[in-house]
Amino acid sequence: MSKKTYATQLLQIVKGSKRAMSYEVAAKNLKKANPQLQDTSKNTMGIKNILDRFVEKGLVSKTKAGNYKS
Predict the structure, then answer these.
(1) Tens digits of per-residue pLDDT, 41-65?
(2) Of 1.10.10.10, 3.30.360.20, 1.20.1070.10, 1.20.1250.20, which CATH number belongs to 6-69?
(3) I want to staple 47 with a disulfide (CB 3.0 to 4.6 A). Which of 8, 27, 35, 36 is the partner?
């Protein structure tokens, strides 16, 4: 069984959400699922960058308000 990466978990969090979510909410959910992931602004911005790459690849979309949805 392969270990899920943070990016894979993050994609599942956004795709599993019924509503669009901000990167802060997505980061909070990812950190809740991974207690070893420290709650720092650097990690939060890294999560935002991952979400932006998902938008570039077409895996998720970004609303006008800046939230992410599948």
Answers:
(1) 888 899 999 999 999 999 999 999 9
(2) 1.10.10.10
(3) 27
Q: Which residues lie across from 21 on neighbouring strands?
A: 68
Distance of CA 58 to the CA centre of its chain: 14
Own/partner long-range contacts of 16-20 (Cβ < 8 Å, ≥24 apart): 17/69, 17/70, 19/69, 20/63, 20/65, 20/67, 20/68, 20/69
Provide mean pLDDT across the span 3-20.
90
